[in-house]
Design goal:
386 residues, alpha/beta, 6 strands, disordered C terminus, 4 domains, single chain, Arc Repressor Mutant, subunit A
């Protein structure tokens, strides 16, 4: 059976370009989004790995809400001038809007808004599209193996009095890499020092960057308040994944103060699966028990910004290769290994079974708690959390 083509939402595309800019390879991005590396490559190729500018609608243009008001007003047989007064718009604006969208009888707000969005895609021509002399000059220098930066610097000196013959090196790169525009043929990239099919980040590693530690817009653990570091209150959690054989995984959460542990069954290691599991768990918690989350630099938490937006708590990330910064969670994971040794297939374990395992851990007395149990320390909220 042929596998359905994977498509990315706008938010996923945003994540793809952000991770690519940070130096993440196709395979790593694919694991985050549960997509094939080839699908990631296809998403990046059209713009040559260069992130497209985010589209924004002109504030002066009609909104979908205003177009819906026009549709309702037309149904009520209102005149164009009356509609214009109601929307505080020029009558000519209303007249043109209706005329270009099938007239009074067939006007539909959604269709009109979609048409306006399509028409707004027409970009202004860039300097290399308008100036064929400059474009041919740049192509001749590229054939001489000049870099875009060398070409840009030479133009600024050679044509210091003519701004129309000057261009930035980024514009030259984009003219070659953004295939959709076709300003300078993509084949000219073979004259560059590194003839790559798309623009790479300076952090990129050809063999895959195992040391990749950049979470987009992530908060550093050093930004945590002293109150969290000193374990003064409940609700500050540390989290991580525990892996088993056959590519199976579970997530673990432990409260820094009480050592109360939660174990979550995961559908996969990808960012979406982890995000879904964490979201469901934290939504069940009382507000006083959800204050912060600390995680390592694993890309399974790439959707941390969405998590913070939904739950309202910050997510802090440890320094690279510093597991001791989440010492409570690391210690808890070693306790879990007593029940689930390495190379254990975790897929047969249901959420109910994992809850039972967590209960055993939470009812074990801890020396650090003066031999009280985590369940005792957090007894008021234990029923709701589990």
């Amino acid at each position: 059976m042929k596998r359905a083509k994977r498509t990315f939402t706008q938010d996923e595309k945003e994540l793809v370009f952000n991770l690519w800019k940070q130096g993440t390879g196709f395979s790593d991005i694919g694991r985050v989004l549960d997509a094939a590396p080839g699908t990631v490559f296809t998403a990046l190729r059209e713009t040559g790995g260069i992130k497209p500018r985010t589209r924004t609608r002109n504030a002066k243009h009609l909104t979908i809400a205003e177009r819906e008001e026009i549709r309702v007003a037309l149904s009520a047989k209102m005149s164009l001038r009356a509609i214009a007064r109601m929307l505080n718009r020029s009558p000519s604006t209303i007249s043109r809007e209706i005329a270009r969208n099938r007239g009074r009888r067939y006007y539909k707000a959604v269709d009109a808004d979609n048409r306006a969005r399509r028409m707004a895609k027409r970009p202004k021509l860039g300097i290399l599209e308008l100036n064929s002399v400059l474009r041919r000059l740049i192509m001749s220098k590229l054939e001489l193996k000049w870099s875009p930066e060398q070409i840009s610097g030479w133009l600024s000196i050679e044509f210091s009095r003519n701004k129309q013959m000057q261009v930035s090196h980024e514009t030259i790169y984009k003219s070659m890499y953004v295939r959709a525009k076709g300003i300078i043929h993509h084949a000219f990239t073979q004259h560059l020092r590194r003839s790559r099919p798309m623009r790479h980040s300076k952090y990129h590693r050809r063999s895959g960057d195992r040391s990749f530690t950049k979470i987009v817009n992530g908060l550093s653990i050093h930004d945590r308040s002293k109150n969290i570091d000193n374990r003064k209150s409940l609700g500050h959690w540390e989290g991580d994944l525990v892996s088993g054989s056959k590519n199976t995984h579970i997530a673990t959460l432990v409260d820094r103060k009480s050592r109360f542990t939660i174990i979550l069954k995961l559908a996969g290691k990808d960012a979406e699966s982890v995000h879904t599991a964490l979201l469901a768990t934290f939504k069940k918690m009382p507000v006083e028990y959800r204050k912060s989350l600390t995680w390592d630099r694993g890309m399974e938490l790439a959707k941390h910004a969405d998590f913070t937006k939904e739950i309202g708590i910050p997510v802090y990330f440890c320094d690279p290769q510093c597991p001791w910064q989440r010492g409570t969670n690391e210690n808890t994971n070693s306790l879990i290994r007593q029940y689930l040794p390495k190379k254990t297939d975790l897929s047969p374990h249901t959420q109910e079974q994992l809850n039972g395992l967590a209960t055993q851990l939470n009812e074990r007395p801890r020396k650090t708690l003066k031999f009280k149990t985590p369940s005792h320390m957090i007894s008021k909220g234990v029923a709701m959390i589990t």
